[in-house]
Structures are given as C-alpha cells and as structure tokens.
Amino acid sequence: MFLCDIGNTSYHFLKDEKDYKEDVNSFDPAQIKEKIYYICVNQKVKKILKDLSNWIDLSQKIYMSSYYETMGVDRIVASMAVTDGVIVDAGSAITVDVVKDGKFIGGFIYPGKNSMRKTYKDISSALNYEFNFDLDLKTLPKNSVDAISYGFLKTLQSEVLSHNMPIILTGGDAKEFKKIFVDAKVDENLIFSGMKKLTF
Amino acid sequence: MFLCDIGNTSYHFLKDEKDYKEDVNSFDPAQIKEKIYYICVNQKVKKILKDLSNWIDLSQKIYMSSYYETMGVDRIVASMAVTDGVIVDAGSAITVDVVKDGKFIGGFIYPGKNSMRKTYKDISSALNYEFNFDLDLKTLPKNSVDAISYGFLKTLQSEVLSHNMPIILTGGDAKEFKKIFVDAKVDENLIFSGMKKLTF
Fold it and tell me: pLDDT band at residue A65, thresholds of 50, 70 and 90?
C-alpha cells in the first residue's frame, strides 16, 4: 500500500513500511503513476491532486460528525489510530487530541517550537533564546532562558499530564518533546496507521 | 509620596493613592519638579531620567542576590509586595512569580494575549481569532476558537493552579485573566506596594 500525508512543507510518503519526505514546492505528484491514498491540508496541493485519478483522497471517507468541521484532517486521521490516549503532534503547531474508547473527546492547539521562539523574541530582544528542553520542570526558574523554556514547556506538560492517559508523540519535533513527556510513546508514523483504517 | 513605574509603553504614576498613566513617547519627565521615586525597564527613558536629580531610581536599593541578574526590576518589585503567593502580571508578556515566606522562589515568562494571538494567526490564517476568555476550561474543545483559547489559557491555568497558593493578578490584562483565575485577588497597584517598601 502506498500512502501520503501532505502538510504545508512536505509530502510524507509510506511505501512498503518505509517512510520518506519530499519538499512540497519542488516535488511533482504527477510522477507517481501507481494508486496512492492521501490526506492533504495544503490547499495548493489539493487542487493539483484533484486532476490526478490515481491519487485517492481518504478525507472523503471520514465520518465527520464524530469530529468538528474546521478540524484538520491530519488531526482526525491521527485520532483514528488511537483507542485511548492523548496524541501530541508536535510540528509548526502542536495539536493535542484526546481519544477515549475509540471516541474523539476534544483537543486543543498550542504554538510549535519555532513559532513560540519567535513570539518571545518579538516581545523583547532580551528573550531571544533557543528553548532548553533539558530544563528541570520541577523547579521554578531563576534565569531568562529557563524562564521562557518553562513558560513554553511546563504549561503544556501540566495540561497534558492532567488527563492521566497514555501519551503518543508524533510530528517533526516528537523526539525533542519526548524529553518533557518521558513516558510517552513516540510514533512518527501514527498518521499512516489511521490512514490504513480508511483504505478498507 | 510620588511613585512611577515605567514600562515599554507608559509611565504609570501613583500620587496621593491615585494612579494614572502617560504615554512613554509623548510625556516629558522634566516637567515633574517634585521628588519622585521610580523603577524603569525602558532603556531609552532610563537614560533621560539619569540627568534629572529629583527622579530617584529605586532599583539601586534592591538586594539583587535574592533574585537573578536579568530579571526585570518590575517583577522583582512586585515580588516584594507579596509574602506568600503566585503573582501573575498580565501585560505584553505574562510573568508568573512565586514568593514563599517573603522569599522569591522563581518564576517564568509566558506570552501575553496580543503576542499569542499573533502567534496563532501567523501559524495559519485559519487560527486568526480573538481568544474566548469565557470558555469552559473543564471541557476539551471541539471548535477552532476554543481550541486556541484552551491552548493559550488552560495550559497557563494548569501550571499556575498547581502551586496551590493564593494568586495575585496585576498588569493591564488583570481583569480579563480574572475569568480564568476566579479565586485570584486583582491588585493593579501591586508594584507600588513593593516600591513603597524600598523608599524607607
């Protein structure tokens, strides 16, 4: 089975259980001639794929009333891959979605690492630092780097842990966030598990 | 006693227990001839005040080893006004500082309302909303406005409440944040209480 998850920056493929990425601006989807199942949040790419008959849009097969209208299809499909847990998808935004007994309960959106770094920098040049993911989140900070790192990370951690459910980490920054969600399972191909459920 | 707390956007005065503000770009501090105690985080204004002998810089009287070098003087002085509690100063940034038995324990910095609104908008035009402060933070959202409002507010709330201490709200957005910290005491002149302690 050939699968593709298309975001704002890349095509993420899964073929024969191997995944790889292509840049959204340089890759031409017409070069793929096989049958391929996809989901896509990129409006520009969506238009191109509509004319390619071997590209099959899995979003058509989602029973939307279990979710909400403006919810990203990537969040929906990732939720389908989980029976009980909190899914933390850490990318340009961090989406946090809770699934209980296979049912989507709700979720929220938090800024991703690069967005939040820019936010602090724009507030004050004195806050222009990379985040410290190795920070001890049990101790209140007494320096500027840790004060913003704690502000970004501890607040998210407190909320996510409060659900007392298994945590599944996915998305481009999953490995880095594993440092603050030490018991989480990292599954970078979570979305493909959800997509497979839709192909039947 | 005449007091002034100078930030990046305004002079905040307290005279005869009444407070008022002046714009930092249009107000001329030389027009004040009386003795006035101030703190200032605005580098440009700081330079002007150095040449005005009736303007007395209270930051000189702070015993810095109880705090940390790059900590804003406004956070330090607000901390001095509290014996036990979490101070949430909601302005262009939100600073959260914990004081126990009159001792500063540590604190963190979170983006303010306007900064965070811009952050979400820049991630995606689909997230270009005003925050909903009336949101029920006990329920996980199922729409976009609430998904970002929860992301901004619930994460902060979870962390602040975890300290199990009295909460003191101050800063320009204090009243709005009272909606999510319902048991908090709002004290918009907290910083002046701290400044008074330094004048003796």
Answer: confident
Nearest to B106 among A71, A142, A152 (CB): A142
Task: List residues of B whose CB lies inside 8 A of any A CB.
Answer: 67-68, 70-71, 92-93, 96, 98, 105-112, 115-116, 118-120, 122-124, 126-127, 139-144, 146-148, 150-152, 154-156, 158-159, 162
Q: Which fold has domain A83-200?
A: Nucleotidyltransferase; domain 5 (3.30.420)
| Catalytic residue positions of B, numbered | 74
The model's pTM = 0.92
Give the domain ranges of chain B. Answer: 1-61, 63-200
Same fold, B1-61 and B63-200: yes
User: How much of chain A, in percent, has pLDDT values that exceed 90?
Assistant: 89
Q: Which amino acid is at B6?
A: I
CB contact under 8 A, B70 and A140: no
CATH topology of domain B63-200: Nucleotidyltransferase; domain 5 (3.30.420)
Model ipTM value: 0.92
Substitution target in A123, A132, A144, A173 with the highest count of B β-carbons within 10 Å is A123
Please answer yes or no on whether B159 and A162 come within 8 Å at the CB atom: no
Domain B1-61 classification at class level = alpha beta
> How far does A159 lie from chain B, in Å, by closest CA?
5
